[in-house]
């Protein structure tokens, strides 16, 4: 057997092992209820509760931002983020949180937002027509 | 019913749409003609027709670009693309950036570069022109179809940049004949793209992507035409060119992210970054195996496969970023334009061409029966290429998780901490690759004298151990075994290649390009490692006066002090080595610049050793989601101090007075007054100091008011001493005229004070004064984050050195190619 063939086999074996490890590294998208049970870091997907106040008072603490979010099972939970308020969270359509549950609040270490893109927004800002149409 | 719309400019759009269709037709014509020209080389008219098609295509592409520029320049918001990606306030030089904010524009850019490359090929490729151009034009045809924007059999093919706003959006307002007068402005360009790096980074990156078609086309043409060995000679300089440009483009993007984005770093393992680096890795692997094959005859299949797959991966990258499939995992991919079907076909076509050609010609591949020697360069080049490929497999596997989810209906989420995940794997690969780039340079093709090899290697190794030890000590990366290993191998790579460079100066010029580019690579990895491993947030909020944040357990990441620091205007805060003060802001619409003064004090004498002002700015753009910060960075030779605004007082953008001038009484700016009964010589406090009642002026005079002898007029001398020891004089006056009391107040506007002398109380022997104070203005504040990046200059320096090395290698290979041609013709 040629040396290169042996090395090729070894490398393919490494590649396969690697892919298996990648999938043990991977995570799952879960809900607040699951987060309470598991107590490990995970992803929670959901939407912002726009009716409740977003709390961020940088004068008091520049690293404390809290808000309420519904997960995919429509469970509501308070979320606390140890950082400054992400700029466009009010407009977000969907939020992906990374973090873990501590008691009854979810402590997020990362917030990823899906915002209406400029393509989908498709809202034309209209100014008042000053001239009347002449037909 | 047809509506007569007012004020539209439809002609340029119609011309543009015509050229969009023409560009598709012309590239299809060129593709077919070049195909038959290759099949029947004796029929000259096919080649001529192919060139005509290419020329027509080139003219169309240039015209489309010109018209689109014209539309954006004239702010014709009746066109959806113009409305969606520009606004009236956009400076002219950023019009060019709005070309690549949208997908249509970036497809145009890709086609434009392909036209440029195609032109070079038509003039220079000689006997390779027809087969190579067949593949280039196939790609061009696919790209042109992305812009057509016509409905065929109920599904839309492509998306045209010339589509009208009223056709693109279904909104009642747009049915109004006069809708154009109602559209105030376009959506504008994302402020993040309003950066000079965004003018240059996308074109470079797209030139890199576009030029990867050339090695693909040469490899495919080589298989098709059975010119197996030959294709590598003209293909190699092109592959080097693509690697150089793409590498430069990727690092430019990384520099843009570092300078203009608020990621807080230069590399984030975002899927968009990964998919651009994957084809770069595979093509680098291809370049190395091509070299191995040219010198030893080993590895034809691998060299060809890697050259072909690199371009397939470019298309895959464009599928991932443009189809919206990465939505949940990436911050900055395009959203879907409903073209993912088309992109999948594009991808599959090139994948099948690759597989088909390789299977079809598998029997004819040149092979050697000889076995590679362990002490041969080609053997280790081959191993290096395989390691690079495995590194790519890792990146593809993790990045493609959303694709697997879509394919198999699973719901696997990517790793929680992608940066740690990728660093773990890619760090290990980097160690192997760096080791190979060092060692393989001491080997010769075919067979090396093992004694000479070990002598050279060990000598370099000893120097490396010394330098690496010092580096590890000073950069403090010794906390992590992997960091130490990468530092060591990167320095080994640099030292060994410097040695090779030394030999080059003694006359072995051939290896200069490779030595220089490998030194650059070593520097790049070293800089990236040190900057990424030892960067520290220096704006740590460890004052501890906020109890709220310490909720979790000890050692939990959530209990770490936050990374954002709160600064009030004019109040210095100690931050690491620096005393920092927020000294105010200035407005240059649409940006607000926040000036932060950094002072480094000498510990003993307290003197300022060094000071500088950083002015990160933020743009408040409600359309784009509020305040968007752009960092400011102080560059030193050994480190950078990076500062970013994360929040700011909302009113710093627009201070305004609500009360009209004529309604002012002069007192509305003041707080409720305080009334004091005082004697001469009394000292009283106010918010910012004290004031002293100094005495009475019985000879006070008033202009304009004539006084009778019976009137009493008294002035009260008051001296104000502010906290900063400045003094001010004021003399409010009291007047008794015809039995009525009047008083005339006096301001000390610098201190926000107003004094009234309101009464004289002879029975108490007191004087009555009223003091008005302005409320202290609410101090402006900012929340910001500062990060120190040590030795990041190695990263940028490495990039430049590497690019220079590539240029030298390209020059050498082109020269060799020419020599080779001469040889064969003789």
Automatic annotation (TrEMBL), chain A:
It is found in: Membrane. SUPFAM superfamilies: Heme chaperone CcmE (SSF82093). The keyword Membrane applies. Keywords: Cytochrome c-type biogenesis, Heme, Iron, Membrane, Metal-binding, Transmembrane, Transmembrane helix. It comes from the Bacteria. The chain crosses the membrane at residues 6-23. The keyword Transmembrane helix applies. InterPro entries: CcmE (IPR004329), CcmE-like_sf (IPR036127), NA-bd_OB-fold (IPR012340). This is Cytochrome c maturation protein CcmE.
């Amino acid at each position: 057997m040629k040396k290169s063939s042996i090395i090729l086999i070894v490398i393919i074996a490494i590649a396969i092992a690697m892919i298996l490890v990648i999938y043990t590294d991977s995570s799952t998208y879960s809900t607040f209820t699951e987060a309470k049970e598991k107590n490990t870091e995970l992803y929670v997907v959901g939407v912002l509760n726009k009716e409740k106040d977003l709390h961020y008072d940088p004068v008091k603490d520049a690293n404390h931002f809290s808000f309420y979010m519904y997960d995919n099972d429509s469970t509501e939970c308070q979320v606390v983020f140890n950082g400054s308020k992400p700029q466009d969270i009010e407009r977000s359509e969907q939020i992906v949180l990374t973090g873990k549950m501590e008691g009854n609040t979810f402590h997020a270490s990362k917030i990823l937002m899906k915002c209406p893109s400029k393509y989908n927004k498709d809202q034309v800002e209209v100014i008042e027509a000053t001239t009347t149409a002449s037909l | 019913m047809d509506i007569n719309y007012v004020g539209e400019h439809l002609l340029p759009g119609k011309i543009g749409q015509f050229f969009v269709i023409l560009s598709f037709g012309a590239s299809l014509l060129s593709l077919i003609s070049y195909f038959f020209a290759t099949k029947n080389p004796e029929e000259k008219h096919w080649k001529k027709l192919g060139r005509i098609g290419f020329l027509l295509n080139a003219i169309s592409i240039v015209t489309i670009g010109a018209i689109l520029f014209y539309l954006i320049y004239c702010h014709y918001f009746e066109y959806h693309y113009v409305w969606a990606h520009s606004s009236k306030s956009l400076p002219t030089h950023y019009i060019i950036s709005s070309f690549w904010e949208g997908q249509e524009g970036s497809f145009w850019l890709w086609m434009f570069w392909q036209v440029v490359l195609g032109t070079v090929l038509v003039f220079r490729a000689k006997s390779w022109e027809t087969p190579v151009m067949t593949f280039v034009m196939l790609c061009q045809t696919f790209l042109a179809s992305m812009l057509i924007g016509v409905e065929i059999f109920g599904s839309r093919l492509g998306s045209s940049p010339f589509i009208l706003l009223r056709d693109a959006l279904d909104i009642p307002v747009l049915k109004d004949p006069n809708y154009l007068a109602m559209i105030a402005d376009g959506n504008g360009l994302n402020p993040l793209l309003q950066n000079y790096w965004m003018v240059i980074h996308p074109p470079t990156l797209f030139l890199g992507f576009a030029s990867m078609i050339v090695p693909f086309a040469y490899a495919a043409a080589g298989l098709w035409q059975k010119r197996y060995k030959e294709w590598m000679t003209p293909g190699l300089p092109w592959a080097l060119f693509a690697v150089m440009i793409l590498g430069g483009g990727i690092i430019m993007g990384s520099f843009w992210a570092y300078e203009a984005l608020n990621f807080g770093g230069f590399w984030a393992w975002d899927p968009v970054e990964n998919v651009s680096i994957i084809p770069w890795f595979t093509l680098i692997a291809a370049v190395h195996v091509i070299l191995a094959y040219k010198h030893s005859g080993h590895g034809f299949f691998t060299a060809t496969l890697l050259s072909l797959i690199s371009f397939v991966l470019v298309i895959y990258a464009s599928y991932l970023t443009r189809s919206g499939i990465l939505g949940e995992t990436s911050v900055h991919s395009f959203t879907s334009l409903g073209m993912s079907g088309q992109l999948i076909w594009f991808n599959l076509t090139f994948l099948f061409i690759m597989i088909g050609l390789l299977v079809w010609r598998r029997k004819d591949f040149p092979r050697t029966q000889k076995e590679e020697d362990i002490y041969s360069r080609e053997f280790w080049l081959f191993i290096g290429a395989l390691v690079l490929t495995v590194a790519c497999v890792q990146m593809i596997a993790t990045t493609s998780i959303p694709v697997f989810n879509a394919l198999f209906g699973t719901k696997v989420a990517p790793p929680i901490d992608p940066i740690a995940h990728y660093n773990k794997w890619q760090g290990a690969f980097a160690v192997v690759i760096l080791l190979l780039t060092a060692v393989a340079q001491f080997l010769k093709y075919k067979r090396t004298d093992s004694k000479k090899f070990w002598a050279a290697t060990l000598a370099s190794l000893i120097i490396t151990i010394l330098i690496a030890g010092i580096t590890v000590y000073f950069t403090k990366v010794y906390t992590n075994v992997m960091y130490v290993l990468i530092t060591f191998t990167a320095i080994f790579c640099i030292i060994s290649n410097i040695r090779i460079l030394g030999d080059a100066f003694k006359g072995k010029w051939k290896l200069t390009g490779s030595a220089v580019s490998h030194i650059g690579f070593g520097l790049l990895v070293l800089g990236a490692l040190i900057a990424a491993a030892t960067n520290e947030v220096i704006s740590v909020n460890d004052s501890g006066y906020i109890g709220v944040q310490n909720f979790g357990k000890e050692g939990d990441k959530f209990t770490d002090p936050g990374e954002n620091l709160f600064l009030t205007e004019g109040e210095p805060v100690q931050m690491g080595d620096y005393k920092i003060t927020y000294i105010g802001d200035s407005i240059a619409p649409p940006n607000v610049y926040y000036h932060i003064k950094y002072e480094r004090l000498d510990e003993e004498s307290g003197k300022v050793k060094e000071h500088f002002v950083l002015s990160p700015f933020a743009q408040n753009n409600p359309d784009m989601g509020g305040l968007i910060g752009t960092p400011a960075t102080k560059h030193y030779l050994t480190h950078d101090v990076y500062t970013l605004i994360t929040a700011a007082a909302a009113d710093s953008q627009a201070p305004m007075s609500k009360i009209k001038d004529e309604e002012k009484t002069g007192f509305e700016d003041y707080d409720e007054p305080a009334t004091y009964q005082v004697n001469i010589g009394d000292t009283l406090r106010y918010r910012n100091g004290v004031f002293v009642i100094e005495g009475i002026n019985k000879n006070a005079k008033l202009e304009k008011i004539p006084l009778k002898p019976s009137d009493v007029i008294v002035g009260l001398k008051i001296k104000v001493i502010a906290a900063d020891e400045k003094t001010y004089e004021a003399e409010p006056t009291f007047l008794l005229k015809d039995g009525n009391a009047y008083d005339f107040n006096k301001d000390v506007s610098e201190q926000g004070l107003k004094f009234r002398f309101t009464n004289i109380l002879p029975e108490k022997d007191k004087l009555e004064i009223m003091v008005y104070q302005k409320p202290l203005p609410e101090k402006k504040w900012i929340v910001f984050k500062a990060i120190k990046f040590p030795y990041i200059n190695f990263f940028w320096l490495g990039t430049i050195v590497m690019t220079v090395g590539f240029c030298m290698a390209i020059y050498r290979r082109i020269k060799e190619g020419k020599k080779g041609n001469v040889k064969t013709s003789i």
